[in-house]
């Protein structure tokens, strides 16, 4: 399955995603293709289905090897995930594959518990995360609600041009 | 199509952004980047817009739009070349301390002396407290303790690298 990363203002990125059936072969195939794309994209730690053009409540996430990692659950693939609880707060600068030219300072909780269904088996999985991984979960959960980090920036002067380096 | 830079400064009142933006829209302009804030209560806006009209027409339209509110408007054409690649990485710098002349000059000169480029800046005077926040591109880590000591203020600098999610 070939997947293309969608960029804002693609309307699929502003869509509230309906639940994804974890036992659907099509959903499993999409999840596997998203994992392949994430692992093939340098620096990528997560992809939500709307970022590849599918308005479905599904994301893949893996912060293994990323900077600033504290908790690390390894590869997490969840259908219809929900935020069970969250605590703490800090502000960090975020970027997104779907908004390649901007970054923004975004407040997020520093610890979260997320629950969802594993594609294929349909089993429930609960993940506790903090620091960078908690931020990544919140970023992907937002995608499934049609929200980008642009919707969360900390103020009128908290959005920046993404640097292009020599 | 010509790219124009516009500045507007004056008394703050509701509707000023709308008046300027509507005047530009009436000229068929595409309002690109813009920044607006209040400086000690004064409205201050800078923007870049592209449109197909002579400078005199843009100046006249914006002055008419701003006349009622007493804004001073300046317009000039600028090139629309893409910005050059950034040298270095983004850092966030903050300064705070007792107000006195020379704080902005002292910190800015120190940053310039190490080749750091200020890309965003905000300064606020509240009572005796002076606060600066800056975004800086720098090719090497910033060490600002000496300038902080010389100016008699607190200066904090840290990388502002983003988490790409």
Keywords:
heterodimer, A: 166 residues, alpha+beta, 5-stranded antiparallel β-sheet, 3-stranded antiparallel β-sheet, 18% helix, globular, B: 165 residues, 4-stranded antiparallel β-sheet, 25% helix
Q: What does the largest sheet of chain A look like?
A: 5 strands, antiparallel
- Which stretches of chain B are low in confidence, meaning pLDDT under 50 for 5 or more residues running? none
How many strand segments of chain B? 9
User: What proportion strand of chain A?
Assistant: 25-35%
The overall average pLDDT of chain A, rounded, is 95
Low-confidence stretches of chain A: none
> What's the story with the biggest beta sheet of chain B?
4 strands, antiparallel
Helix percentage of chain B: 25-40%
Please name the two chains that share the biggest interface, counting residues whose Cβ lies under 8 Å from a Cβ on the partner chain: A-B, 27 and 18 residues
Terminal CA distance of chain A: 34 Å
* Class per helix and strand makeup of chain B: alpha+beta
User: Secondary-structure element sequence of chain B?
Assistant: EHEEHEEHEEHEE
Radius of gyration of chain B, whole Å: 19 Å
Provide the spatial order of strands within the biggest beta sheet of chain B: 2-3-1-4
């Amino acid at each position: 399955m070939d997947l293309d990363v969608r960029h804002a203002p693609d309307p699929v990125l502003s869509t509230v995603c309906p639940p994804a059936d974890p036992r659907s072969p099509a959903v499993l195939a999409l999840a596997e293709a998203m994992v392949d794309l994430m692992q093939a994209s340098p620096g990528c730690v997560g992809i939500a289905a709307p970022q590849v053009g599918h308005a479905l409540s599904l994301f893949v996430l893996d912060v293994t090897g990323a900077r600033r990692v504290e908790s690390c659950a390894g590869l997490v693939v969840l259908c219809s995930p929900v935020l069970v609880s969250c605590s703490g707060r800090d502000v960090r600068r975020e970027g997104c594959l779907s908004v390649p030219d901007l970054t923004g300072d975004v407040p997020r909780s520093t610890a979260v518990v997320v629950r969802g269904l594993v594609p294929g088996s349909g089993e429930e999985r609960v993940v506790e995360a903090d620091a960078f991984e908690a931020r990544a979960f919140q970023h992907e959960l937002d995608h499934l609600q049609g929200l980008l980090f642009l919707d969360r920036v900390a103020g009128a002067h908290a959005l920046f041009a993404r640097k292009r380096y020599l | 199509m010509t790219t124009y830079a516009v500045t507007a400064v004056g008394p703050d009142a509701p509707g000023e952004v709308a008046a300027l933006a509507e005047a530009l829209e009436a000229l068929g302009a595409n309002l690109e980047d813009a920044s607006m804030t209040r400086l000690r209560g004064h409205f201050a806006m800078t923007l870049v817009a592209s449109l197909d009209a002579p400078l005199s027409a843009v100046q006249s339209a914006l002055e008419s739009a701003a006349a009622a509110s007493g804004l001073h408007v300046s317009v000039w054409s600028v090139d629309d070349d893409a910005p050059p690649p950034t040298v270095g990485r983004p850092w966030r710098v903050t300064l705070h301390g007792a107000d006195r002349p020379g704080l902005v000059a002292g910190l800015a000169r120190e940053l310039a002396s190490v080749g750091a480029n200020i890309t965003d800046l905000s300064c606020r005077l509240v009572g005796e407290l002076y606060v600066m926040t800056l975004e800086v591109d720098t090719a090497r880590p910033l060490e600002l303790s000496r300038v902080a000591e010389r100016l008699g203020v607190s200066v904090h600098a840290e990388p502002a690298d983003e988490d790409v999610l």
